[in-house]
Write a structure and sequence with these properties.
This protein is of the alpha/beta class. It is built from 7 helices and 10 strands. The longest helix is centred in the C-terminal third of the chain and has 21 residues. The chain is globular, with a radius of gyration of 19 Å.
């Protein structure tokens, strides 16, 4: 449970010595606080508000029943064919967004970008490692798994799932998540498979994921290994994943403003 004053004090303690006069902040939230969708939008739109209205209409049958009051944003990430845009959509309950924005404002910061952890961990790698044009990116931190597939450099599938307690659960979830997708995408069968994980029993996990995808794994080191002075970092696995996502968020904010 989020304790407001503890959150505010923690933000101040960590960020104020680093921020200087910078008040903008990129906020990276756990995937469970919202939803991510990939849509093909064929209806043309002239401006961002028209785009939001069209995306909201396309999502009306896909959102959970308890999502009555939502905030959404989207990014055009590709074009399938003339007139059909591939769109990445982030959705969050308005009350959750307002709560974080109010608490960060109380700490002296203004939220300029909001995104989810699975995408920002991937972003952290994207600027540091050449993963190629067609690949599958699997990340497992504690009990949270994310699966991203990229085709021709464009995100084509996203899935985030909590409750991954053992390798067998991971195997079943991968097969359940991809049962439809893998048969309809020819490139998927030859995509490189990357894994980044903090699990202690790496061999069992590698075996399960390799079997689920029917190919060899290329294990990725923590993105924090590229940081100057990283040898002095003493972080738990959860803290390391959070820091990687924070780096991805900060870089996204720089690209967004660049």
């Amino acid at each position: 449970m989020l304790v407001p004053q503890v959150f505010i004090d923690g933000v101040k303690e960590v960020l104020l010595p680093l921020a200087g006069r910078e008040e903008r902040i990129a906020l990276c939230l756990p995937d469970a606080t919202g939803h991510i969708f990939l849509l093909d939008v064929e209806t043309p739109f002239k401006n961002r508000q028209q785009g939001i209205d069209i995306v909201r209409w396309q999502l009306k049958e896909k959102l959970p029943d308890n999502y009555r009051n939502i905030e959404l944003d989207f990014q055009i990430i590709g074009e399938r064919e003339p007139g059909s845009r591939r769109v990445l959509v982030s959705v969050i309950d308005t009350q959750i967004r307002n709560q974080y924005e109010e608490l960060l404002a109380a700490a002296g910061f203004s939220v300029s970008l909001i995104d989810f952890q699975s995408l920002q961990i991937y972003n952290c790698y994207r600027s540091k490692v050449d993963l190629g044009a067609d690949f599958i990116f699997v990340a497992l931190h504690q009990q949270q798994m994310s699966i991203l597939t990229v085709q021709n450099g464009v995100l084509d599938f996203h899935r985030a799932k909590a409750g991954m307690t053992d390798a067998e659960t991971v195997f079943r979830e991968i097969n359940r998540s991809l049962v439809t997708y893998r048969s309809g995408h020819i490139v998927f069968s030859r995509s490189v498979l990357y894994l980044q994980s903090d699990w202690e029993d790496q061999k069992s996990l590698n075996d399960a994921i390799s079997s689920a995808f029917d190919r060899q794994i290329q294990n990725l080191p923590s993105p924090l290994t590229t940081l100057s002075g990283q040898e002095n970092l003493i972080l738990s696995s959860a803290e390391a994943a959070g820091m990687a996502a924070a780096i991805g968020s900060a870089e996204s904010l720089m690209w967004d403003k660049g």
